[in-house]
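Query form — protein Ribonuclease PH

QUESTION: What is the three-dimensional structure of this chain?
INPUT:
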Amino acid sequence: MRPSGRQLGEMRSVTIETGVTKHAEGSSMIRVGDTHVLCTATLEDRVPPFIKGSGQGWVTAEYGMLPRSTNTRMRREAAAGKQGGRTVEIQRLIGRALRAGVDRNALGERQITVDCDVIQADGGTRCASITGGWVALRLAVNKLLQSGAIVTDPLTDHVAAVSCGIYAGQPVLDLDYPEDSEAGVDGNFIMTGAGQLIEVQMSAEGATFSRDQMTQLLDLAEAGVNQLVAIQKDATA
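ANSWER: The structure tokens for Ribonuclease PH are given below.
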């Protein structure tokens, strides 16, 4: 039995609210169980120096956790004077994931920055950030299309992510914190709406896993991403 009482292949409740901030070109609040992430997308008429003059756009991401998003207060990274390694790794992951669903030529020489701020954490914050971040990105791109700044939709497909793992010897979908902290194997699966893999992060800790188990986790992830894409579609309809 999972601590939450969910079935092995059952997601936590997922909601995505849009238009949650006044100033951002695109914004969403994604809630995956008790994990809540605010995602905002900002349009800028500039690109990083390394692609300036190429005619291509850029999508990047930043990620952070509020001091009391967890059980005990964590120190603000700004107070420490630098970002932690985990933060840097996660925001690079979010940026890579979102760019996989973007035709950067169609975007033109402009940048979209997706900020993902964890309000409350209960496992799966990076996956929620990617899923909610795509919605904020979609809304920002819609504004570009509506204004006539671009004529071709640069978003080629949905992008969503979900965690899976081996908990108490069983493959489970969408790990919450009690499961994530005890799982012998856990992974993050990032996929497009068409079912193409963008990135898979899997690791064993205190256990190993077989190829058959990996296939089981991939099947669970595909089903979970399909559900998330349906929710993204409803949120942006």
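ADDITIONAL NOTE: The two ends are 36 Å apart (CA to CA).
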